[in-house]
């Protein structure tokens, strides 16, 4: 299991790919390397069908900003 507290010493590289929407089947855009933000992990509960399941969320920071043109393309319909 991923331990964000050990990330820096593990040598693990995390890469972020996003999909604009589900209509673009197979189209993913590489946004770059991400680094977990220290102490950002939280355990929450989410509804899934008729049950509640525990989920861990972690905030990440991109190594470099997303180019403006790509950002505009991804957020606009």
From TrEMBL:
<feature type="domain" description="DUF3427">
    <location>
        <begin position="10"/>
        <end position="74"/>
    </location>
</feature>
<dbReference type="InterPro" id="IPR021835">
    <property type="entry name" value="DUF3427"/>
</dbReference>
<protein>
    <submittedName>
        <fullName>DUF3427 domain-containing protein</fullName>
    </submittedName>
</protein>
<dbReference type="Pfam" id="PF11907">
    <property type="entry name" value="DUF3427"/>
</dbReference>
